[in-house]
Amino acid sequence: MSTIFSKIVRGEIPCHKVYEDAHVLAFLDIGPLSSGHTLVIPKEEAATLDKLSDEASAAIGRVLPRLCRAVLKATGAAAYNVLQNNGAEAHQAVFHVHFHIIPKFADGSGLGIGWKPGKLDGEAGKALAQRIAASL
Length: 136
Known about the structure:
Layout: H1 4-9, E1 17-20, E2 24-28, E3 38-42, H2 54-75, E4 79-83, E5 99-104, H3 122-134
Antiparallel strand pairs: 1-2, 2-3, 3-5, 4-5
């Protein structure tokens, strides 16, 4: 697997780096939704989150809150979204796990979301929760 993010990790394509350690790289998005839009990626190549190792997942989990705080402080934004898509049907465009930190500003810049909540049936929810738990 070789994506644009893999090439960035290898140094073949430049980026505006904001953070790097042995497992994680964070850099500014070249097509930002707002000022400070940052991508956080594992150095491990995995297309979707369910394919990512526990070690790489934990490494992202350790630094993601710190990166959110830094983006807020640097941009002056009071709010932000963290977005992570898995699969083409879920709007993933680069098939290398990545998290977007997207500052939201009073001028409306940032992520816009349409949310159409459904309703969870009690019995169906109970059965589904049991199937998910059994799959762990």
